[in-house]
Write a structure and sequence with these properties.
Structural class: alpha/beta
Number of helices: 21
CATH class of the largest domain: Alpha Beta
CATH architecture of the largest domain: 3-Layer(aba) Sandwich
CATH topology of the largest domain: Rossmann fold
CATH superfamily of the largest domain: ANL, N-terminal domain
Number of domains: 4
Number of strands: 28
Shape: globular
Helix content: 25-40%
Largest sheet: 5 strands, parallel
Length: 647
């Protein structure tokens, strides 16, 4: 293992030992295309040599932008073969957002997917960006483009083949020159509180994290994953790149974002990752379909889901279950759970993970109850998404598990989670001040999250430390914790809570248009669109029921029982990354929202029943406009605190 200390060396080892095994797949025009490990190594070599011919050198940064594509995953390795640094960027970012990262990272070279990304880079280049070479993978729509430095990936590979012939041994010497302490990738933070920062991670950091996870969950070369989450997100880089090159399993790229569910069913992955919002969306779709199903199907579903809720997770964890329930569960597996998992594309899953935000215990329990080994992990961009893991048969719905292999975790005096290990970032790019602020003298990274350990050493994350506040009564206020409770309900897509320094907690709610729209149709409620539906009295009653159920749960949770929601409103628009209300990883920018919707926040706390608001919005084509509405504000029932013993 000593020689496999960088990603290019890991790739070379797979190509040498199992050249014909599948490394990458992509669905194109309805047909799955496959790259073997030897083909992958060859293409990486050609692209790397092509970059070298253009002047790319050790220490240079390579921007990679597009949907999950084999050619783009190979671009990571191509840059690293030359001692360069891969800088993936969010493919749905607008040109203005890209300009900041391109300038900050001093990007001269970029490999992108298609015309859309080329157009954004050309626009960014007009604003003094450093980019001089733009290489595109998909040539459609680009035939008549003649911008300087623009070329296809095929032409770059041809250039690379010629350069390789005229520089024998140069490529291999560059791979050998790579050090495990070299920066391999730079991932930008989501920028919830300011400008994104470039997180510099080394080969050692991600390889350590990958090896720890692969060993922990016994991942093998015959496993399959579906890679559909943004390549710029740390979770995808760990699961679809680092663990891919460590374990040697097959990475499958869907045809498009619209075909993910179809492609998921076709591939039947054995290893799966999704953030909570994806699992929430899948469950919402299941519930919608069951509401539209026949009476006998609904009866069967309800009957056997009751059995699953009672005994499914226990069976999965190898615990004792009454013979009658075990028999009923086996029957339910034939009639309900099996077909349901097949519909979700999860029939073959051995291990599934979620992270990025807290997942509701009931949501967690649902998937495990039907036999899906869903677990949580905890980590940040600065820790390679690798801090804690949940061991099999030690799953707790309200924790994120124990410290992962090679990781030390402790709590500061104020409850902040501190972590140390080889997976911690090397530095923030060009930000020594931020680096010094986040890593203390003992080498612990300050996560910014508040947590507690239970008696068995499992870590429970309460909220972002900076977001944990106090009501005017002195009671704890953890907004993210409350928001996640609300988002468990299929009718609520997003929630934002306010209350620090106030007497009570108030909430903004985004409805889920699909779920609420389906509900409205069954109730014969006519509506013209999101704004109209969000303002319906019947919808307010529906959401009030969800809020009050969340309040009832909070009433049993000790100090948090005082954080029940007193009043709420249903926003007239969906919170959107394009409007700067969410990050690209869909984290709430609470401070920005509080400022942008100040009149609505004030109306909640001053007892108003209706508040007019006019909001600026950005459209997909770059135009701006405004929407206006009279927002109703509703009260919610709160409950007396209940002790845990009584609960």
């Amino acid at each position: 293992m000593s020689e496999m200390t960088t990603f290019p060396r890991l790739l070379r080892a797979h190509a040498a030992s199992r050249p014909n095994d599948p490394a990458l797949r992509e669905k194109y025009l309805g047909i799955w295309q496959t790259w073997s490990w030897s083909q992958t190594m060859l293409e990486v070599r050609e692209v790397a040599c092509g970059l070298a011919a253009l002047g790319f050198k050790r220490g240079d940064n390579l921007a990679i932008i597009g949907d999950n594509r084999p050619q783009l995953y190979m671009a990571f390795a191509s840059a690293q073969c030359l001692g360069g640094v891969a800088v993936p960027m969010y493919q749905d970012a607008v040109a203005e957002e890209m300009t900041y990262v391109l300038d900050n990272a001093e990007i001269k070279f970029a490999i992108v997917e298609d015309q859309e990304q080329v157009d954004k880079l050309l626009e960014a280049r007009e604003k003094n960006s450093h980019v001089s070479h733009i290489i595109f993978s998909d040539p459609r729509g680009l035939r008549n483009y003649s911008a300087p430095g623009l070329q296809s990936l095929e032409s770059l590979r041809e250039l690379g083949r010629n350069w390789d012939k005229s520089h024998p041994g140069a490529f291999d010497s560059q791979v050998e020159a790579g050090q495990t302490t070299d920066v391999s990738v730079m991932l930008y933070t989501s920028g919830t509180t300011g400008k994104p920062k470039g997180v510099c991670q080394t080969h050692e950091a991600f390889i350590t994290a990958a090896r720890g996870g692969v060993s922990f969950d016994k991942l093998v070369a015959t496993d399959n994953v579906l890679s559909y989450l943004p390549m710029a997100w740390v979770g995808d880089h760990l699961f679809s790149y680092a663990q891919w090159l460590v374990a040697g399993f097959t990475v499958n790229c869907p045809e498009s974002g619209d075909t993910v569910m179809i492609d998921l069913r076709e591939i039947g992955p054995t290893y799966y990752f999704a953030p909570p919002r994806v699992f929430e969306g899948l469950l919402t779709n299941v519930m919608i379909r069951m509401e539209d199903a026949s009476r006998i199907k609904r009866w069967l579903f309800d009957k056997f889901m009751a059995v699953a809720k009672r005994s499914g997770a226990k069976i999965l964890d190898g615990e004792e279950v009454a013979a009658k329930d075990r028999l009923l569960y086996s029957l339910g597996n034939v009639l309900v759970y099996g077909p349901l998992k097949n519909t979700l594309g999860m029939s073959r899953i051995r291990v599934a993970y979620t992270a990025g935000a807290a997942i509701g215990p009931d949501l967690f329990r649902f998937y495990r109850s039907i036999g899906i080994n869903l677990k949580q992990l905890y980590g940040q961009t600065e820790t390679c998404a690798y801090v804690t893991l949940q061991p099999d048969r030690q799953i707790k719905f309200d924790s994120v598990g124990k410290a992962a292999p090679s990781v030390e975790v402790k709590l500061a005096d104020n409850g902040e989670v501190l972590v140390r290990g080889p997976m911690v970032l090397k530095e923030y790019y060009k930000r020594p001040d931020a680096t010094a602020e986040s890593i203390d003298k003992e080498g612990y990274f300050h996560t910014g999250d508040a947590g507690v350990f239970d008696t068995e050493g499992h870590l429970k994350i309460i909220d972002r430390a900076k977001d944990v506040g106090r009501l005017s009564t002195g009671a704890m206020f953890a907004p993210n914790y409350i928001e996640n409770k609300l988002k468990f309900f299929p009718y609520i897509k997003e929630a934002v809570c306010f209350g620090h320094g106030k007497d009570n907690v108030m909430a903004f709610i985004n409805i889920d248009l699909t779920a609420v729209g389906n509900w409205a149709e069954r109730k014969n409620i006519v509506y013209s669109g999101y704004i109209d539906l969000a303002g319906k009295d019947e919808v307010y009653s529906l959401i009030r029921d969800c809020v009050e159920k969340a309040n009832a749960e909070l009433a049993t949770e000790g100090e948090l029982s005082n954080s029940q929601i007193a009043r709420f409103l249903v926003l007239h628009k969906e919170l959107d990354p394009d409007d700067d209300e969410l990050t690209r990883t869909r984290k709430v920018r609470r401070g920005f929202i509080q400022e942008k919707y100040g009149p609505l926040v004030d109306a909640l706390f001053t007892g108003k029943q209706v508040q007019h608001i006019e909001t600026q919005v950005k459209f997909e084509d770059g135009r701006t406009g405004s929407i206006a509405a009279d927002i109703k504000i509703a009260d919610a029932k709160r409950f007396p605190a209940v002790t845990k013993a009584a609960a």
